[in-house]
Amino acid sequence: MMKKILVLNHFPTVYPPTSGGTLRYFHIYNELSQYYDITLLSQTHGRKGGLFQFSSTFREYKVEKDPRHQQIMQVLQNGEATYEFSLIINVELSNHLTLYKKYFDDLYRTSDIIIHESPYMLGYDQNLGLDDKPRIYNSQNHEYALAHQIWENQKARKYLPSIYELEKKLTEDADLVFATSEIEKDNFVSMYNLDPKKVKVAPNGIHPDEWLQNKKKSNINPKAFFIGAEYPPNIEAVGYIIHHLADKCPDIEFMIAGGCCNPFSKLKKSNVHLFGRVHHKQKLKLFADVDIAINPMFTGAGVNLKTLEFLSAGIPLFSTHCGARGLNLIEEQHYIHAEKEDFAEKINQFCHDKKYLQEISSSGQKYINDNYSWGNIAKSIQEELEEIIPF
Predict the structure, then answer these.
(1) In sequence order, what are the residues at sequence separation of 6 or more whose Cβ sits closer than 8 angstroms to the Cβ of residue 329?
(2) Same-domain pairing of 244 and 366
(3) How far apart are CA 125 and CA 372, in angstroms?
(4) Is residue 210 a part of any domain in this protein?
(5) Domain encompassing residue 349
(6) For residue 180, how many other CB atoms are within 10 A of its CB?
(7) 3-state class of 318 per DSSP?
(8) Per residue in 62-89, pLDDT tens?
(9) CB 3.0 to 4.6 Å from 368: which of 50, 127, 180, 311, for a disulfide?
């Protein structure tokens, strides 16, 4: 009889997933559903709720936002829509008898293991520390450290001590904590004074066989590609591409996809092309059509999934240290390192050197595909779970 796992998250997955958190959220649990019966409990906007059955052992309940959501949002932010408050509101809502709470209580009773994707939904799990069901924190980021780094709204920053306490409680009471890299593991251990033995690494990954054959390039002007969700570090990177790189690299066509395009939708620049959100097939075509990938990230936590994907697809990558964090990549072997002050210079220097770019991309592709497949990551997680699951 398969053990039943219930996973709490503040955002839903999409199928097929195309960016950031949804890629990790879907693929890890899709792979783990070979070993366990898995239910994702997520939230969604509008009327997109309901039960989504991915397979006989893998499903997702997308719970529509509670009516209180709008009321609390108004009080919190006076109508100002920001990334920070979309997270904080989950903490506030968990104190109320919401529809999500009802779903959780029903599913909790028949579940053997409870997994939290972040600390924001912790208030719903009122039996944490009181029952014998294993708890797992499968972190996408070190959430408190990330919030402390990127939250700008001063009213939102007053919640930082609460986020710290929630993540501290979750890491202390969890039987296992998964971090996306050794760096994040060390940060969890030191910040929350945890036993290092219960913090494991479950990196982000890829499916090496999903990429289309990269076309033989005949682009007169090289195409540089960036993709990202509507998320502050990605928006910062797009602003840098548009206002800095595009002017200093006039011969490069900058192709930008994902929700990160939204704040720049009215902008017109001859060598910048904004695609907005793309579906999976469009994304694969873009990956096959571009000459280089760029990842000018300056803030963030966890491991950048776009870095893994760019390299796995065999696209020569130009990235900052922040964009390449957590993967033990070797500069000038797996990717071309560039920072804010010399990014344009590096692109102009190497973008026409096809032999060098081919060597770099082949080396990076082999390294990622050998070490970061979702199947191998899920198998490692399963082995760790088996150590703590009561018979």
Answers:
(1) 307, 311, 335, 364, 367
(2) yes
(3) 32
(4) no
(5) 223-371
(6) 25
(7) strand
(8) 998 877 777 777 777 665 657 788 888 8
(9) 311
